[in-house]
Specification:
- By secondary structure, the chain is an alpha/beta fold.
- It is built from 16 helices and 9 strands.
- It has a 9-stranded mixed beta sheet with strand order 1-9-8-7-6-5-2-3-4, sandwiched between helices.
- Helix 8 packs antiparallel against helix 13, helix 9 packs antiparallel against helix 10 and helix 10 crosses helix 16.
- It is globular and about 65 Å long.
Length: about 350
């Protein structure tokens, strides 16, 4: 069965006409949602804590800013755009006490609803719009009259208008220009976490490091190993992005294509079984429990793992090489700099937003 994509013609903007939408958080996703909504003619208020560092950039972008509780009281619909691990505390302290029947509460990732960390009252509509790209892309593509595809879902439709309002929201941030796919909170959450861990972030990172280490340990120059295992990866992924695996194989040499077929399965032997284990941990809630527990206990293991990979040889070699290639627009992440901790690798799904 072919999935149906929904486009501008399927989303009636009148569902949000004359309504106020609050975007809670103003980080990677939040800033893009708020500005796109505003430019689509929606009355937007950004909800932030009184001392939030995001207040000034939001105000400089011409947006109204209010304390989270005030934004919730004013809004007809809300998008929670803060990290997964921060959502429950923001919800409990500032959102839940100020909800009223008929409001629509939306999420950019289903984590907290699916795993039961947040359970809004029965008279509150609950929906999701999850752009399949980082916030800066959501904003820049919108400004170019395009859109970033998204997933959408309705978890609860108490008012009978939730689906129409969720689709109108997806249209207002530009996603129905590219197409949105209907899903459930369960499906989005589990597939998003799996994609991040098994392939997009975890799988790719582990393969890159292993390939780099194999060459260096065999006596090859680290700089050469970097180019072969990290730098060229973007070139290959861009081909896949445009035309799938077939276009990538059409574009590379016959030697590379043949090596793909005969050696790829050798490298990933056993990987599918491991992926099934990863998926089982996600489906059971084991990963969610571990991740939330890690943050609530202070995040020592998370910081240790982050520091361990920050100091990997491929990062040191790569930084030196990228510094000599300004055309790649190199970025340096300093130790201690805030990093994205919410889910949604390629949306990414929520960035380093904060309502604090």
């Amino acid at each position: 069965m072919t999935a149906r994509m929904y486009y501008d013609a399927d989303a009636d903007p009148a569902a949000l006409e004359g309504k106020t939408v609050a975007v809670i958080g103003y980080g990677s996703q939040g800033h893009a949602h708020a500005q796109n909504l505003r430019d689509s003619g929606i009355d937007v208020v950004v909800g932030l804590a009184p001392g939030s560092k995001s207040r000034r950039p939001a105000e400089e972008a011409g947006l109204r800013v209010a304390d989270v509780a005030d934004a919730v009281r004013e809004a007809d619909a809300m998008m929670i755009a803060v990290p997964d691990t921060a959502q429950k505390s923001v919800y409990d302290a500032d959102i839940a006490p100020n909800l009223r029947p008929g409001q629509l509460l939306m999420f950019a990732h289903g984590f907290n609803i699916h795993f039961g960390r947040i359970d809004p009252p029965g008279d509150i509509d609950v929906g999701m719009v999850a752009p399949k790209g980082p916030g800066h892309l959501l904003r820049s593509v919108y400004q170019q009259a395009g859109g970033v595809p998204a997933l959408f879902a309705v978890h609860r439709d108490a008012s009978g208008t939730a689906r129409a309002r969720v689709l109108a929201y997806a249209r207002a941030i530009g996603s129905t220009r590219a197409g949105v796919l209907e899903t459930t909170f369960k499906e989005e959450t589990e597939t998003d976490l799996f994609g991040e861990q098994a392939l997009l972030c975890g799988g790719v990172s582990a393969l890159v490091k292993s390939a780099f280490e194999t060459l260096v340990e065999a006596g090859y120059q680290p700089e050469l190993a970097y180019f072969e295992t990290m730098h060229e990866l973007k070139l290959i992924v861009d081909l896949m992005y445009r035309g799938g695996l077939n276009f990538m194989r059409f574009s590379v040499s016959d030697t590379a294509e043949y090596g793909d077929y005969v050696s790829g399965p050798r490298v990933t032997e056993g990987a599918k079984a491991a992926m099934r284990d990863v998926l089982a941990d996600i489906q059971s809630g084991s990963f969610a429990q571990r991740w939330v527990g890690e943050i609530e206990s202070g995040g020592a293991e998370f910081q240790r793992l982050r520091e361990q990979d920050r100091n990997h040889q491929i990062e040191q070699v790569g930084a030196a090489l990228r510094a000599k290639m300004p055309f790649v627009d190199p970025v340096v992440v300093e130790a201690g700099q805030a990093q994205a901790t919410a889910s949604g690798a390629a949306r990414s799904s929520a960035g380093a937003e904060s309502a604090r």
